[in-house]
Amino acid sequence: MTTFTPETAAEVLNIVRWAVGEEMPLEVVGHGSKRGIGRPAQTEHTLDLSGLTGVTLYEPEELVLSAKAGTPLAEIEQLLADNSQQFAFEPMDYGPLLGGTVGRGTVGGALGANLSGPRRIKAGAARDHVLGVHAVSGRGEAFKSGGRVVKNVTGYDLSKGLAGSWGTLAVVTDVTFKVLPAAETEKTLAIVGLDDGEAAAAMADAMGSSAELSGAAHLPVSVGGRFLDGAFSSEARTLLRVEGVGPSVDYRIDLLAGLMRPYGTVEIIEPPLSRTLWQEIRDCKPFADGTSAPVWRVSVAPTVGHKLVDAFRRAAGANAFYDWQGGLIWLRMEADPEAEILRGLIAHFGGGHATLVRAAPSVRSAVPTFQPQPQALAALTQRLKKQFDPRNILNPGRMATS
Amino acid sequence: MSGLLLPKPDAATLAKREEIIADMRIIVPGEGIVEAESGMRAFESDGLTAYRQLPLVVVLPETVAQVSRVLKYCHERNIRVVPRGSGTSLSGGALPLEDAVLLVMSRFNRILEIDLANRAVVAQPGVTNLGITQAVEHEGFYYAPDPSSQIACSIGGNVAENSGGVHCLKYGLTANNILGIQMVLMNGEVIRLGGKHLDSEGYDLLGLMTGSEGLLGVVTEVTVRILKKPETARALLIGFPSSEQAGQCVADIIGAGIIPGGMEMMDRPAIHAAEAFVHAGYPLDVEALLIVELDGPQAEVHHLIERVEAIAHKNGCTTNRISNSDEERLSFWAGRKAAFPAVGRISPDYYCMDGTIPRKELPRVLSGMRELSEKYGLGVANVFHAGDGNLHPLILYDANKPGELERAEAFGADILRLCVNVGGVLTGEHGVGVEKRDLMPEMFSEEDLNQQIRVKCAFDPNHLLNPGKVFPQLHRCAELGRMHIHRGQMPFPDIPRF
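Above: the input entities. Below: the structure tokens describing the complete assembly.
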């Protein structure tokens, strides 16, 4: 049992080369804040990138930031905030949900897990903001892809290919992201008391308006008590976030209020509370309950989310709330994950995917935590893995679906 | 054609041409086969007209099953295939090969579904970029990426090239605006990546496919995200006595937290050419002209336009106009949008480059370009997507003068080397194709390129799809698959361990 903690990309390369030569699989981690996601590692050795830190380039006017992979995300977000900028993809913090602490996680992990947040529906995920990487493949070869400019189509976009690969293709040592100005202010319009179906209609209406929403979530009454210290405990809230410069935010909130009034009573949530609220939605606060009860993260077409949940609840006990206009469903199971029922329903409702982001290790060893793929696609995935990591050295089995 | 090496035609395939055509007629009955030289001439080049080549045969399938059968047939017989959309590539991505089937997707021209509640449109790949917007604009929606060829270029081609446009700083490239595709692999297998939901269940194959220039698969269906049209748009037309001041103005606008919908710069030669062509009312006594367009809710545009105006004055602009009507806004754009044909009027031929640089390097790159212009004895006019650092230098030459095309190409290659040297890249939106293929080693090491080719090996191990494009050399997959073991000891006593 050895944990390697390299401090340079050259050391990472040497460690991976050694592992390839010895056929010694490595568990690749940053801070380990998302270690509980995927099939549990069974490797003897760990490659811990938390010593590979430092922002190597930050040019606010060029909208670009590069950092070594182990750099804490919290540190980078503070640096960006000091310059009135942000990662527009609003990376969520899995820490609390997985029983860890708040504010852990690295910039490499943000790419490896393709993190995003409520703003995903407007601004995209980590994949949409990564500009370039330096990485070491499972062949023990260092390579780079992309660059440091925001517009680039030179060669295959391997940086995107590594987004959401959970460390199974290559060890990213350096990553460059596009950064964007932070919104000057924000407000949230809440509609009170809608059921899930009414909320889906309201959110679709709002997203199709010129209010340019950066968040659309629905909190059924069953989770309401867990947000903003119980502020929504008596009735469901459908939440629409508007961000931008002051006059624009006020103008669009007025527009939305007019548009949403037929759906029910509306209330306005002002900046400090609004910010806290969306952070709680982003980090799945209602299910960060200190248990290891199974939690699913489900992505489907926004308008079918509530139908899926309704059908699923006929077969299994689960609590749910919605982000991304209803297309992102967080599901907390009362007992077993019921993976086959859930995935069957996803197929029935037009496709999507479900990831079991929290469960006890024994459950994660038995249930495919990542969505199984149709045969031709699964075979292509395997071929790609083999091209990057032919000896299955990097996080072997983590994304396994069989 | 200047000295471009394409893969050596396969004699066995050429010898079997008649048989292959007969089989193609069975797979794609009716009007779907073009084999006569006169008919194939229309397909001999794409937007990069310096290169021309007749294909083995042109096949225009109509169904996914036909695409699958054509590819499977070619896969089994080791026949090369070049996919083509509308043929507007500026980098030769759809240049035919003598021994390859040219698979033209233009008959896939239907919108399959409009789903406003999920803000998605499902289209066949031959639908034009503008055709998608036209299908939804009566409902107030549009598709954001707007390459300048949008009237003709196909959405399938946009996926292949990861096309941009003048609005991509704010709204992103194709990769950020598509939700899913259906595609056919070279072995004939049909797969779906994404759909109306977000993100991938596994590896981001959609991200890899976007911008892969027709080397990984043939797109047969695209699901795009549509957006509500901004309530209003207004533009500023700002002239500066130097490109440095214009560049600083751009930096200050972004530094102030403003991301305009579009931000374009033109240099003096481009301004003069455009003004002479369309009489847009551009000032002729400035060195650099900026068009800054702000779009969004009225309250926001009104607020931001004043801030941009103040920034422009602070940076010493000498002229400044603000559009007061859509008509006036479009007149500001008229010159920029006509810049290429305008340059075409002052020079018999021009060669359009596409490097991207960190914006702050603009003065250095412009002065380097002036030196190169003297060295090669050829003029250059610059239009520039100023917000994202994407340069389009237009090199002026006359193909009828011996040696000028070669000089223009050498000049262009030097410009791209300059872009890479200052931290930029070879191509911002036009793609590598055949045009910049041999410059790839300027930006990538052999290991970098090999890892890209290994992605190709996962999709198309026999290198049958669009060979000769993007990569200067396509190493055989078997060779690339070999492991080079750097056997070492348990690594490094000096590495901290616990």
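Note for the figure: The first strand of chain B starts at residue 33 and ends at 34.
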